[in-house]
Amino acid sequence: MKKSFVLLSATIALLFTSCSTLQFTGSPIGQLAVPSSEIIDWEQVNEWQHADIISENFPGMSIRKVYDELLQDIEGKTVVVAVIDTGIDITHEDLNESIWINEDEVPDNGIDDDGNGYVDDVHGWNFLGDSTGDQYELIRLLKKGTDFENKDLAIEKYAEMISKEGVKDSLPLIEKNLARDLYFYENDVKQAKQLGYNARTTGDDPDDFSQHFYGDGNVMPKSDDELHGTHVAGIIAAVRNNSLGMDGVSSTAKIMCLRAVPNEGDEYDKDVALSIRYAADNGAQIINMSFGKDFSPHSDKVREAVVYAESKGVLLVNAAGNDGANIDEVFSYPNDNFQNEPEVSSNFITIGAIGPVKNPLMIAPFSNYGKYNLDLFAPGAVIYAPVPSNQYEALSGTSMAAPSVSGVAALILSYYPKLSPKAVRKVLMESVVKIDYELELGYDRLQTTMDAISKTGGVVNAYNALLYASDHYKTLRKL
Ligand SMILES: [Ca+2]
Ligand SMILES: [Ca+2]
Ligand SMILES: [Ca+2]
Ligand SMILES: [Ca+2]
Fold first, then answer.
1. CB contact set of 205 (below 8 Å; sequence gap of 6+)
2. Residue 44: what pLDDT?
3. Cα distance between residue 248 and residue 240, in whole Å
4. Considering every ligand atom, which ligand is closest to the CA of 111?
5. Backbone angles phi, psi at 417, to 5 degrees
6. pLDDT mean for each 10 residues of the chain (479 residues)
7. How far, in Å, from the CA of 314 to the mean position of ligand 4?
């Protein structure tokens, strides 16, 4: 039995090297038509995202099936995945081997050896400097006192934020306080909501996009609770089969670290746009973007960066957000379109979250959704992955669903490295496992179907994706 396995993989490897296009054979996984009534075995929940959606009791991405039945010992090419996020613990025991190294940059010599404008950028770049957190964009906008689109909505959202803390002033009074750049209850609300709080330490003007070079090359987290980026990176690329922690989806991904998302509060459009451009200019093939916000004063600049990344052959994987909202109605940024206008590019894919159940509660109640703006779903609730200081935690969010898809995209590019981002997006979308039974949506548990609230009506599936890429390779190469 063992011998035949070895022989088989040797044959496939030969095929791979001789005609350079790997061919996979297998039967694609069909739709999931009936909800399961089986009880979840919570002992088995760690790495449920790797389970086979049909033969196992969790609606995973069939990653184990891929490694067992398709890949075996076939080595894939390295794929660079940029993670735009909080800091990443590049010393983590289960992640350090998977961190991208800029070979042309000599560390810590104060010189921009590769001439890309960033000094000592060995593992990526930190656009936030020493800052540990920031305000929400709506507060930054309100503080400026100028009129902007959706100002009324911003004041309403601010009122919502502070009333959660027990402050219930009228909207006109709130607006009056905002206009004076102070708020009486400032000390009662969280730091990130305070009007006077200015966390930016990089010395640049965040509205001046001509200033590119600020921050530093230290991509590590700045506080103990800054764990988001490490977790996201681990879902994609935690070292496989090393008896530590968990397995990432991809065994060949190298993580380029771009620290641009404050641990609290909202990211700046400029840091996001420059991170996308840095990734595109320095060899990333995929960018994971597990962040988002309701107000984006320079969303045009971010979309320009998305289009630039497309020209450089980079796929962008975007988390849909955790407000349980329809993002076709309540717009969320970044996005590949402005307020439901046509998409500006073909390299952007937006991901919602499912939890570890194959019943009507499969869609995570916090997940945003939208027939136009949400492309597909992926495992994103109770995801066990690395956090700083060699620890591991189970976290939930569309932030965990996006890197699940980035990992699958890395698998595809690892074996089909010549595919364009448009082609990889097509593979991911055409190869979903459709969920074809009634589901409950949000905390109100409204009846819906996955098809009604997303473009594909399905969940990402790595096994189907590799078979699809194999079967349609010639057509895909033309995209
Ligand atoms: Ca450099
Ligand atoms: Ca250097
Ligand atoms: Ca591991
Ligand atoms: Ca879109």
1. 211
2. 87
3. 6
4. 2
5. -65, -15
6. 44 49 92 89 91 95 97 93 98 98 97 97 97 87 82 86 74 77 62 69 94 96 96 98 97 98 94 98 98 96 98 98 96 96 98 97 97 98 97 98 98 98 98 97 95 98 98 96
7. 15
Tokens of 436: 């074809």
Residue 114 Cα to ligand 4 middle (Å): 35
Tell me which amino acid residue 111 is.
I
pTM for the full model? 0.93
**DSSP code of residue 68:** I
| Spatial CB neighbours of 248, under 8 Å, sequence gap ≥ 6 | 98, 234, 235, 236, 237, 238, 239, 240, 407
Q: Taking the CB of residue 452, how many other CB atoms lie within 10 A of it? A: 12
What's the N-to-C CA distance of the chain in angstroms? Answer: 41
Residue ranges of domains in the chain, CATH in brackets: 29-134+211-477 (3.40.50.200), 137-193 (no CATH)
The residue behind tokens 């996006």 is 402
Task: Look up residue 117 and give its two tokens.
Answer: 């404008």
Q: Residues 393, 387: contact at Cβ < 8 Å?
A: yes
Alpha helices in 105-207 (DSSP H): 137-144, 151-163, 171-179
Residues 353/378, Cβ–Cβ less than 8 Å: yes
Q: Which residues, by Cβ under 5 Å, contact ligand 1, an ion?
A: 105, 112, 114, 116, 118, 121
Here the tokens at position 63 are 């990653």
